[in-house]
What we know:
Blueprint: H1 19-33, E1 42-45, E2 50-53, E3 61-64, E4 69-72, E5 76-86, E6 92-95, H2 97-100, E7 106-113, E8 119-125, E9 142-145, E10 149-156, E11 162-167, E12 172-181
Amino acid sequence: MAFPYVKTNWVANVTPLSEANMDHLETQFDDVIALLTIRGDLIYRGAATWERLAKGTEGYYLRQGANDPAWTSVITVATTEVFDGDAPAAFTDLDLSAVVGTNAALVYLKIYNPEAGPVVFTFRANGEVEYVTGTEDGSPSCSNIQATDFGMVIVHTDDAGKVEWKSAAGVGTTVDVVAYIR
Length: 182
């Protein structure tokens, strides 16, 4: 099939809606419609021709990739450890891009405190200078984690998939990405 459309050169003084011209248009239309095999399929312009995007999974949305559209979930749930070691005492980058990609994302983190007493971990978007200083578990950027327990934090990344974080105690800890939304 021609891409994306083969223009018919209309002949002067001949009716544009001639049978031959209409057959030509109908053939192109039929070629495009033939791509759609089930209810919910979509057509988009590919690199060289029209392409079919199969019906997506319920609850997924259409997202533009580098070149072509694709179905993706609204939230990705995949617990992945991104840090295991001593938490920094001053704000330091924590690169989450291996999990969330090199783009902005809203990230749900799980932080484990193996120490004997409560510890405050503070998170903020990379490059930010302001942050919430509260210590309630589940606050937007801090978590007051009790001994040998874990806390949850919601924070947004920068466009490179990074956040900054610190701990007043500089303790050993693990950080997991539990879920994220791009």
